Amino acid sequence: MLIATPQSMHFADVLPLQSGASIRAYDLSYETYGTLNADKSNAVLICHALNASHHVAGVYLDASGEVVDKSEGWWDTMIGPGKPVDTDRFFVIGVNNLGSCFGSTGPMQVNPDTNEIYGADFPVVTVQDWVDAQACLLDALGIQTLAAVMGGSLGGMQALSWTLQYPDRVRHAVVVASAPNLTAENIAFNEVARRAIVTDPDFHGGHYGRHGVLPKRGLRIARMIGHITYLSDDVMNEKFGRQLREISAIHETGYRFSTQEVEFQIESYLRYQGDKFSEYFDANTYLLITRALDYFDPASPFGGDLSAALARASAKFLLVSFTTDWRFSPARSREIVKALLDNQRDLSYAEIDAPHGHDAFLLDDERYLGVVRSYFNAKVAA
To answer: Which residues does substrate bind (predicted)?
Structure first.
């Protein structure tokens, strides 16, 4: 059993940001698994997606030494002893990004320049900024070169960006269920979710902390919108279909005919997900991270030419996509594949026929895990 121990590192130096702003006296929360070898050549960095954290794998123990219920890391199917990313062989690092709400400096922390909670005043951060901060952490750990950098969804964008910002520090990049940028439809989904948050009466321009409230209604709706996009139509139909909840006083048709009551199982499920999310996630963090998603576009400085953008990358690549992922479709991964082939880069690509939609990258799919295992065994560990 892999036991996880959260750690934190403080950075006094100023970190310049893509926006022209900067941040200083910041903390990064992280966890490590496995043992760093003598020449520090077996490090694997895991980059997280929107609402995940540095707790990538393993479980937590309480004060009595018992396993904390439901404390498994978000990619525990992938990382651990004997798993595809084998912590008996690799030193795995999970980092919580700047601006997040799981320990690293973000909107909920105090601004050292004002001694006030950042709130809406936290600077805009980008994928490139996160990669720069991760590089600072690696420097502090004495790790110059990564055996691999790996991530799914937004984490995959960070992995891709690593190969462009620090090409000499990455030997392999594993990019799962990701894209070289967001489509207009994806940006639209993010904007609707953000509008749900900022129009919540409890948002107070992002300074809700000063008013002792939380914009939970907006967060609930934002999560419901996002969750719909993470699942495939097939999965929703199989899991919920048009099933009704057990309710009383229904019409002979089977419906209550109410505009406000929860009648369908899918409605109940989405509300549950929204309620749960609003209890642990920060609204300003949601705004920051979805904006970082929107802004990511490494081809933009090259007139939209992705092949020209990826010419800087020297790493070897594994890309994985899923057939029913309509938010980050296989066609988006194939754009990256083509650009890498244009540059004659060493790459492997797997398109997994899975019914689970975008969330497939988090699930226990034997073919998917087998592809990653084979790549790490044959190439990363070689």
So the answer is: 223, 359
